[in-house]
Amino acid sequence: MKDVRKYWYLFWTECRALFLDCARPLIDLARWLRGKG
Fold first, then answer.
1. How far is CA 17 from CA 10, 27, 34, 36, in A?
2. This protein's superkingdom (predicted)?
3. How far is CA 26 from CA 2, 13, 22, in A?
4. DSSP assignment, residue 1?
5. Cα–Cα distance measured from residue 22 to residue 25, given in angstroms and rounded to the nearest whole number
6. In the prediction, which pLDDT does 37 show?
7. pLDDT (tens digit, 9 = 90+) per residue, 1-37?
8. At CA 12, angle to CA 2 and CA 31, rounded to 5?
9. What does the alpha-carbon distance between residue 37 and residue 23 come to, in Å, rounded to a whole number?
10. CA 24 from chain center: how many Å?
């Protein structure tokens, strides 16, 4: 059971890093649009 938790943690951190890398430009764009409007 410990191994499963370890692999899940690694999987989650990898996905979160990828998601943040993908989302950062979108967040910046949304912030820029909000600043203009």
1. 11, 15, 25, 29
2. Bacteria
3. 36, 20, 8
4. -
5. 7
6. 72
7. 789 999 999 999 999 999 999 899 999 999 999 998 7
8. 155
9. 21
10. 8
List Cα–Cα distances, 34 to 13, 18, 31, 37, in angstroms.
30, 25, 5, 5
Q: Scan for tokens 């938790």, then name that residue.
A: 5
Two structure tokens written together for 35 = 């600043």
Sign of the dihedral defined by the CA atoms of residues 28, 32, 34, 35, in that order: positive
C-alpha dist (Å) from residue 13 to 7, 17, 18, 26: 10, 6, 9, 20
- Give the span between the Cα atoms of 24 and 32, in whole angstroms: 12
Token output for 10: 């690694």
